[in-house]
Amino acid sequence: MRQQHTNNGLGRGLACLVLLFALLPGCATTARDGDAPASYDAPENADPLEPFNRAMYTFNDKFDRYLLKPVAKGYRAVMPAPVRRGVSNFFANLTEPLVALNSALQGKWSDAGSDLGRFATNTTLGLFGLFDVATRFGLERHNEDFGQTFGVWGVGEGPYLVLPFLGPSNFRDGFGLIPYYYAHPVTYMEEQSTAYKLYALEAVDTRARLLDAGDILDQAAGEDPYVFVREAYLQRRRNLVADGAAPTAVDPAILFEEEQPPAPPNGGS
């Protein structure tokens, strides 16, 4: 098992994957220093699939280094910043209904309403999501997904897992990709070739936004970037599930119970 990764490209090669799935989403929910939930300490054997994961890590690194990153650099060089921003906004808007759904499944009704408001506002006034008008109206963007929903419901995260092309995950988050796929609007496009092009454009756009993260990861990752990525991902996902607070499992049925009216005061009818 390799413990040394001298001059490994992960700091560059998986920067998009690590930061996209581990560090960047939901920055507003980052826990304060010293607030890491004690009950979410990593299990003693959180990475039983390490040989497989390291192989996938290396594969993803090479895929990024020799294909995705060069394409992303060309994309950023050719496309003006306002156009790239519009592309990013468009793809973010497509997933707003999924965010709203997961907010509702977690019992965050106010957030779910805000998410739907964002989608309606940006789809109409924002020209199909090209412009983020909703943020100017005070509708905050949230970050919720099926993996987080399962975590709120008390489903264990399972072993750490590195997925081909997608990067860091775990069994719970990997399973959450299934409903995500079937709930995503692009899945139901009649022209599959167009859907594939949209997925590719989203990947390139995401990678282009994270090109500058490579140097930071190179400095932070140390001699074994694989371990750095794993720990960053796991800690970040645990924090997102707990919303920056000590986590408690929630029975999904409780989220949908009707609120009981307050009891009348003594002597009331």
UniProtKB/TrEMBL annotation:
PANTHER family tied to this protein: INTERMEMBRANE PHOSPHOLIPID TRANSPORT SYSTEM LIPOPROTEIN MLAA, LIPOPROTEIN VACJ-RELATED
Entry superkingdom: Bacteria
Signal peptide, first to last residue: 1-31
One Gene Ontology biological process: intermembrane phospholipid transfer
Gene Ontology CC terms, in alphabetical order: membrane
Pfam families: MlaA
Protein name as catalogued: ABC transporter
Family: Belongs to the MlaA family.
InterPro entries: MlaA
Keyword vocabulary terms for this entry: Signal
